[in-house]
Amino acid sequence: MSFLLPLDISSSGLETQRRRMDIIASNLANIETTRTEDGGPYRRKIVMMGPKKMGDADESFYSRLEGVMIDDVAEDQSPFKKIYNPGHPDANKEGYLLKPNVDLVVEITNMLMARRVFEANIAAIKTTKQMALKAFEIGR
C-alpha cells in the first residue's frame, strides 16, 4: 500500500464534501423559488455518494478502495409545501401557492455534517503528512 493512498482517499472526501456543500447552498438559495425553467417550484437536490474503487478484481474489497465519489445528484420527490396566498402570481386557481420542498433546518444540518466531514478529512491529511515526515526522519 502506498503512503500516498490515504492522501488520495482524503482528497476525494474533500472534493465530494465541497460539491455536497455547493448543492446544499443551491437548495438554500432557492428556498423561496416558486417558478423554475420547468414551470414549477424548485425541487430540492440530494447528493448520492458511494465508494470510488480501483479496477483490480483479484484483491479484497477494502484494499481496492480509493475514496468516495458522488454517484448522482437526484431531485427529492417529497411533496411541495402548499400555502394559501391568492395574491401571488404563481398561485393556482384555488389560491394555493406551491413552495419548494426545501427545509431550512435539514439543509443547515446537512451543511454542518458536510463541514465536519470536511474537517475530518483535513485532519487525516495532516496526520498522514506528519507520519510521512517522521518516516523520512527515521530513514535518515
Approximate strand percentage:
15-25%
Number of domains: 1
Amount of helix: 40-55%
Instruction: Please tally the β strands and state the result.
Output: 4
What does the radius of gyration come to? Answer: 22 Å
Shape: elongated
Strand/helix succession: HEHEEEH
Largest sheet: 2 strands, antiparallel
The largest beta-sheet arranges its strands as 1-2
Please tell me about this protein's structure.
This protein is an alpha+beta fold. It has one domain. Helix content is 46%, strand content 20%. The protein is built from three helices and four strands. The protein has a two-stranded antiparallel sheet with strand order 1-2. Strands 3-4 form a two-stranded antiparallel ribbon. Helix 1 runs antiparallel to helix 3. The longest helix is centred in the last third of the chain and has 36 residues. The radius of gyration is 22 Å and the shape is elongated.
Structure described in brief:
The protein has 140 residues and is an alpha+beta fold. It has 3 helices and 4 strands. The strands form 2 sheets. A two-stranded antiparallel ribbon has the order 1-2. It has a two-stranded antiparallel ribbon with strand order 3-4.
